[in-house]
Amino acid sequence: MRRHGMVSVIIPVLNGATRLAATLAAVKADANEVVVVDGGSTDGSQSIAAAAGARVLSAPRGRGTQLAAGANAAEGDWLLFLHADTVLDRDWRASAEMLIASDDGAERAGYFRLRFDDHSAPARRVAAIANWRSRRFGLPYGDQGLLISKSFYSALGGYRLLPLMEDVDLARRIGRRRLIGLPAAATTSAERYRRSGWVCRPARNLLCLTAYLAGMPPSRIARFYG
User: Fold this and answer.
1) What is the pLDDT of residues 25-61, one digit of tens each?
2) Which domains, from first to last, does the chain contain?
């Protein structure tokens, strides 16, 4: 029998073995269920997930597709979508309960405060801008996680099978006034930013977002994004 407040953590992965174990370790003690949806990994990600006690599913490659598959299989009343390279604070469940226990929580969604596993000034600056964007425009990054009741998620139509911008697409359907920031931090890998540059990477992200909001199909944006 399902219990009110049962949280299923859903993690899409594709060759994320180097960071997946830490992501799972941070949530498994306080999650009622952990569902890892693999998109065809060849690095042993499935074995790592299984060893940590997660349910392991397979789905066609694509974050939107994998997230949707995980949501369909999850048993919880609440869904927490989390990237495979993002580690939540130890008090994440207490933060989640602030939304779950609120009177209107079942018709709202929450996201965590973004932080990078990099203590440099550029990393702090990019995180600060991302957190401001979340508050001001209701557009949190997928790296910040998304907590939403399964009933609200279903009413919105869930994640669409998009090659890119699946997080922005769902956030826009939720609406800024129904998205709230949760106090716990989500620490995500800065590897992509270190590789591409703390200026170039955010600039490319902004360009992709602008193109999407202007109506460019996500399939075309994905070719540029790489």
Assistant:
1) 999 999 999 999 999 999 999 999 999 999 999 999 9
2) 7-196 (3.90.550.10)
